[in-house]
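Appendix B, record 7
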Amino acid sequence: MNWLTRLARSRAPLAPEHALGVQRYAASRMDDAACPLEGQRLVVVDVETSGLSPRIDHLIAIGAVGAHGNVVRFEDSFYAVLRQEKPSATENILVHGIDGTTQTQAPDPARSLVDFLAYAQKSPLVGFHAEFDRAFIARTMREVLGVAVENVWLDLADLAPALYPEHAARAHTLDDWTGRFGIANYARHDALADAVATAQLLQVLVARAAERNLTRLADLVARAKEQRWLAHSLKSF
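Structure tokens (predicted):
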């Protein structure tokens, strides 16, 4: 049993300021996916974790940046490290670079998560292999705050090959796709840097989608889901 599960089972009532943050998130308005993208704020998210299993590993850091229409707003960004009971393994630290002291002396996880809810609100969330980010965030929010994350998610790992099938055979990872379009990443495996690189990839894909008259978030989500279904179907043959 990991520490977040133990915390959830023995969790005292949330501090008043944290409970208020949860209430404000619950009361916030969900963006209409049928509205044109040019009028929406998308929040591009990346996480760093202690491992690859959303079931047993821990969420260590969240990085995010806002994309307003097709403009990435670097001033609209978020970064937080969640305090850990003990540091992740050395080999894991070598990947994300968040040292043990930073992990154990970071802010209370409830504080960091409430701050993220206040930042993101119910804007659509975007990631590359977004199910990984979604699963870690959803589980940690549920176990620490007792809240379900209601935001719509868009996965660029599905949308990119749907819009650029000519690159799909050789481009699979975030590095593959950003490299294909000449997007630099100033600090790979830093949650905020990866979110910024993903946001720049989103710009490329939104422009390509507009050329195909896909101008709403709902269009992109549907196209990504179609691509995922097609990829799974082909693997079954």
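Remarks on this record: Residues 191-211 form the longest helix (21 residues). The radius of gyration is 18 Å.
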